[in-house]
Each structure stands twice: as C-alpha cells, then as structure tokens.
C-alpha cells in the first residue's frame, strides 16, 4: 500500500514564514531556511514553499530564498507563488525545487499547465487551488469556488471542474487549499477533498485545517487524500512530524518510517 505523505508548508511573506486564519491576519513564525532544515531533520516527507503575496503584488518569487532552502534539504520540495510563465517555472526548478506549484497564474492562463508539463513532465507540475464554499449555482454546481491572489478574488470557476481540466492539461498533482478551514485547526475540508480525489486520476493533497493527528487520519481514510499539508499544528510545537506518524501508524495508515 502506498504510504501517505506529510508535507509541512512554509508560507513566506517579506522573507519570513507566516501563518494566518482563512488567509488573513498573518503573523510571522520563523525563518524559512531554519524551519525547512528543522522539518527535513524531523522526518517530513516533502516540503512546500509558497510566496503568498507574489501573485497579488504581481512580482517574481523570492528566488534567493528558494535556493537557500533547497541547499538545506534533501526531500522533494515544491515551490509556488508568482509563477506566471514557463521561464518562471524553469528558474524555480534550476534553483533546486523538484516541483512547481501553480495557482493564480494557471487560472489566468490555463495553457501554462500544458506548457509546464510538456517542458518538465507532469510529475513536476502541481495545480494548487484556493477554494471557498459558496451557494450552489449553475456556474458553481459543486458549491466550491476557485479564488486567486491569496484568496482575495473569486473567479466564478467551479473547483471540481477546474481540477478535472487541470489534470487534462497535464497537472501531475492537485493541492486542495480550503480557505474556510485554513488556520482554524478544526480539520480538513473532507467533502471537497474526497470529491476531487474521486474525480481525478492523480494524487490529491489536502491543505487547510489540521489541528490534531486525528484530522490527518480522517482526511487519509475518509477522503482518500494521498498527502496532507500541515502548518499551525507543527509550527507552534503542538505536535511533531514523528508524533503524527506514530499516531497514523497506530491507526493503520501507512507512513514512511523515519525513526
């Protein structure tokens, strides 16, 4: 059985790792290079780095920080934020990332997914989605709408339809970022995660809401997620990667043994 992955997320703003709730009220929690090294040494399966204001500020990603993080860790490393062109994606990969995570840029130009998959392979291209619950409508039949620019702008695009289109264009993984659950520590958005995991033939990564090891167990077992992103639960020292893996193992969820 394939092991489930635990992926710490470093949301970076102005060179600092930051954390908020529902994409708002962010406070700084540490230095990206130090935290990346800590998580690598603690047994994280992968790491994801988001430059969370690059798209909204319409600037390039902080490539120097990407290079510094890549020099410190030896696990798969995904980078997103402000990636608008094939050249942007290439710069991130050359700086040491294994994967590029495209979000707002892909919504604005869906062909960016296809271009990235053709140039670097689908395994390198992660479609990250910022999703918020809304009333169901003809335009948003699932009741989950895609937002861009750090969750600031709704775009009238249904999350399930977008995930299917993204995979058809060449995305090799889907990250489901729930704006409603983000930073709440109340658990992942199980219904949405399961709907997308059942719909697409590529790995689905749950993001937003982890507050206990049980929440990770729930999203793996009930929603069939392939991986789960963590932030608040581990940034503040409430649990360690090892704590979480021991708990999951005790519940019969396969994890990569790092002890």
Topology record:
Layout (H helix, E strand, L loop, with lengths): L4 E9 L2 E6 L2 E7 L1 H10 L5 E5 L11 H8 L6 E4 L5 H9 L4 E4 L1 H5 L2 H10 L4 E9 L10 E5 L4 E6 H11 L3 E6 L11 H10 L4 E4 L5 H9 L5 E4 L1 H4 L5 H10 L9
Q: Concise description?
A:
With 259 residues, the chain is α/β, with parallel strands linked by helices.
Task: Summarize the structure in words.
By secondary structure, the protein is α/β, with parallel strands linked by helices. It has a single domain (5-250), classed as Aldolase class I (TIM Barrel). The chain has 10 helices and 12 strands. Strands 1-4-5-6-7-10-11-12 form an 8-stranded parallel beta barrel, surrounded by 6 helices. Strand 11 (204-207), helix 8 and strand 12 (227-230) form a beta-alpha-beta unit. Helix 6 runs parallel beside helix 7. The protein starts with a strand and ends in a 9-residue tail after the last helix. The model has no long low-confidence stretch (mean pLDDT 90).
CATH topology: TIM Barrel
Q: Which class in CATH terms? A: Alpha Beta
Per the principal axes of the C-alpha atoms, what is the gross shape?
A: globular
Biggest sheet architecture: 8 strands, parallel, barrel
Please report the total strand number as a whole number: 12
